[in-house]
Specification:
The complex is a heterodimer of chains A (414) and B (327). Chain A is an all-alpha fold. Helices cover 78% and strands 0% of the residues of chain A. In chain A, helix 3 packs antiparallel against helix 4 and helix 5 packs across helix 15. Chain B has 327 residues and is mainly β. Chain B has a single domain, classed as Neuraminidase (6 Propeller). Chain B starts with a helix and ends with a strand. The chains are: A mainly alpha (414), B mainly beta (327).
Chain lengths: 414, 327
């Protein structure tokens, strides 16, 4: 029922015509949102990259202390994601709510200078930064979803995630450049990051069009958001996403496991995530297109199979550098096949005027499940050591993935 | 068209602000030293100097400096060596210096001879935290903060390692140390080690183990490579010259530490007269006095001295200094 109504509404959307060039087959709005993400990610990743240096050498803080603050925020962000999604739908203002999220994070870059060497101050600033990220995610994904034709959603999210990742790649490089030019002045990095973030907000304001949606007669009550879970397909999708999230090993454990297994030099250790994001960057668009053609559900499940093979490589009998490269590539494939594909798959199941809320629900469930998975895996590692924990995780993941493939819960179109 | 113009104008404004700030930050450093400094000195160990990191604002900020032990407030001599952390004993020095512009941060570990010439160089990931040399000058050891190990973007962990000067043996991290707490082998994925201090025999050493919100003092047999937790809430230990006591920082509350000394035989803990929060590995000047760096107004720092028996009052030894060391 949702499917039919949302498709009908979408057909009036501004997707480019079939005569357009092949590469232009993604709506201009999606490209604009992708560029906003790219610019914002440059800004935020440059700060992330220098933060350890700044805290330890610049301020002489004891970062262990500081690291403790960190865990507290993850939960709060999940709740704010729901708030952002609901607010965007409630006032029919996807762009505004996303803009508030982007703006908050931009201001935080200056906040880091103002906070000086106060641990509480820096902690508060980073909390607001995350709050901004939490608030903007759901309305932004809803905008991408509503700006695309239903049959090219996977491609649209692929393009967005690729641009987003490109920004994350550039961030540390920009930070390094600024540190080099400013002769090691951390304030310069924060100010540059602030300016880049402001430019991102400006891009959002001028280049991104909000989707004017048919207003409901009355405002949307909060329970409409949770009533979405009454829709069978969507509820199943949330359930599977959360269940898969629960048996998914989180990134840092994959890298730590690789490091332990091959005794990777700690100088090279930070390069491991670059391997994953590199593959993600390359494959986000192709896999999005494959998802559109052969079914987002299949690609999403297939992504988890890639993760299983990755885990088998990590704990399997074959050594050698090829296994590391293979494992990182598979880890990147897992991301490319799941990160943008899930919201793409969810879009058509959600009515237009509740799309941000629905995506927020879905992604929050997934994020909370992954958090729980990280805690459980850490526990297993402590109790059984690394090898057995990996084998058990891979086993559980295989079972849930196969179940998800067989039960085939949600996708109406093949 | 209008939108493109707005975007371009906005880009120009923001780029302009950023460039102006960066350029002005370049010229920001003071051209003159805030305290009297004698530059271009040989920093060879002479047995009469107190060494430290000069953190007085000016062109010689961050350089290794020296003053006569008998006149710590005299004009400081500086050479060319820049160190974020420095320590020295028996003709062996260690200098930790973060590589400018390296992301993720990488630290140069320099092992120095009596003439302060580099005898060995090692590049390790992380940012400098602690450095010491064993009292016989045969082992140098350090702690670096490393990011990327942990489970969140801003999480950190520590990595402590050591290097045997004569044999050239390098232990990049002592994380594989077999640790026993209450007689049971301890495993935890969040185990971190920091602040090593060696005994005079070059075998027994102490370090901090941090895990699950607790910190332990670990007493270790280096040859057997196994350690045992002997005390809780002891960080950055520093063994006294007579080997009987350990000075350390004790956590009072989050982000607040106090200096204390524990007698190893009786386990009696004495809090020192310094009541301000100290985040440093203490240094024994002799069996009765302890030196430490104390942060002031954010990122400035001074070296202070306080009696090791809990009596007396702290004295300001060298303003604008950190990493005190006797060579």
């Amino acid at each position: 029922m949702y499917l039919a109504s949302s498709r009908a509404a979408d057909s009036g959307g501004p997707a480019t015509g079939s005569t357009a060039l092949r590469w232009r087959r993604v709506s201009g709005n999606v490209v604009a949102l992708g560029l906003v993400s790219l610019v914002t990610d440059i800004s935020s990743e440059m700060v992330t990259a220098i933060l350890p240096l700044y805290l330890v050498l610049g301020l002489g803080l004891n970062p262990l202390q500081f690291g403790l603050l960190d865990g507290l925020y993850a939960g709060a962000t999940a709740v704010l994601r729901l708030v952002g999604g609901y607010a965007a739908d409630r006032w029919h203002r996807l762009k505004t709510v996303a803009g508030v999220g982007y703006g908050l994070s931009a201001i935080c870059k200056l906040g880091l200078i103002l906070a000086g060497s106060s641990v509480a101050g820096i902690g508060a600033v980073l909390a607001v930064d995350r709050a901004g990220k939490g608030i903007r995610t759901a309305p932004r994904d809803a905008l991408i979803s509503l700006s695309s034709k239903p049959e090219t959603l996977g491609r649209s999210f692929g393009v967005h995630r690729a641009l987003d990742t490109a920004g994350a790649f550039l961030g540390p490089l920009v930070a390094m450049g600024v540190l080099w030019v400013s002769l090691g002045d951390y304030g310069s990095v924060f100010v540059t990051s602030f300016c880049i973030a402001c430019f991102g907000v400006l891009l959002l304001v001028v280049a991104v069009r909000d989707k004017v949606r048919t207003h409901r007669a009355s405002g949307i009550p909060l329970r409409a958001m949770f009533a979405l879970l009454g829709g069978r397909s969507f509820r199943r999708m949330c359930g599977w996403a959360a269940l898969l999230g629960l048996v998914t090993i989180t990134d840092s454990f994959v890298y730590l496991a690789l490091q332990r297994r091959w005794d990777i030099s700690s100088t090279l250790f930070p390069l491991l995530p670059l391997g994953t994001t590199g593959v993600f960057l390359l494959l986000a668009v192709p896999l999005g297109r494959i998802a559109d053609r052969f079914g987002r559900w299949r690609v999403f499940v297939g992504g988890h199979l890639a993760l299983v093979i990755c885990l088998v490589l990590v704990c399997g009998p074959v050594g050698g550098p090829l296994s590391i490269i293979g494992a990182l590539a598979l880890h990147g494939i897992f991301y490319a096949a799941t990160d943008g594909v899930l919201p793409a798959a969810a879009g058509p199941l959600l009515p237009e005027d509740l799309r941000a809320s629905g995506l927020a629900l879905l992604q929050t469930g997934q994020a909370l499940a992954r958090m729980a998975s990280a805690v459980l895996f850490g526990l297993a590692w402590t109790l059984w050591d690394l090898g057995p924990s990996l084998v058990v995780t891979a086993g559980l993941l295989v079972v849930v993935t196969i179940a998800a493939a067989v039960v085939k819960p949600w996708e109406a179109r093949g | 068209m209008k939108k493109v113009l707005i975007a371009l104008a906005g880009f120009a404004v923001f780029a302009g602000v950023a460039v102006t700030y960066v350029v002005s930050a370049r010229g920001d450093g003071p051209a003159e030293n805030a305290v009297p400094v004698v530059t271009g000195q040989s920093m060879a160990l002479d047995g009469r100097s107190l060494y430290f990191r000069n953190v007085a604002k000016g062109p010689d900020f961050g350089k290794l400096a020296a003053v006569p032990r008998t006149a710590p407030t005299a004009a400081r001599k500086v050479g060319d060596l820049r160190c974020d952390r420095y320590a020295v004993a028996r003709g062996t020095g260690v200098c930790l210096s973060v590589k400018q512009g390296s992301l993720p941060p990488v630290t140069d570990l320099l092992v120095l001879g009596p003439d302060q010439a580099v005898r060995h160089r090692e590049t390790l990931p992380g940012t400098p935290s602690r450095a010491r040399v064993s009292s016989d000058g045969k082992i140098v050891y350090w702690t670096l903060f490393v990011s990327g190990d942990s489970y969140s973007a801003t999480g950190f962990s520590t990595r402590s390692g050591l290097y045997e000067v004569q044999t050239g043996q390098l232990v990049k991290t002592i994380e594989e140390l077999a640790v026993f707490i209450s007689g049971r082998r301890y495993f935890a994925r969040d185990a971190n080690f920091w602040g090593i201090t060696f005994g005079a025999d070059g075998n027994r050493f102490y370090a901090t183990l941090g895990s699950k919100g607790k910190t332990y003092l670990i007493e270790t047999d280096y040859k057997r490579y196994r350690g045992e937790a002997i005390l809780e809430n002891v960080e950055c230990p520093s063994l006294s010259p007579d080997g009987k006591r350990i000075a350390f920082k004790q956590k009072v509350s989050d982000g607040v530490w106090r200096l204390a000394v524990v007698d190893l035989a009786s386990r009696t803990v004495t809090q020192l007269a310094e009541t301000r929060s100290v985040d440093d590995q203490p240094l024994w000047r002799d069996d009765s006095t302890i030196l430490y760096a104390l942060r002031r107004d954010g990122d400035a720092s001074d070296v202070w001295s306080v009696p090791a028996n809990g009596a007396g009052t702290p004295t300001l030894l060298i303003p604008d200094a950190s990493s005190p060391a006797y060579g």
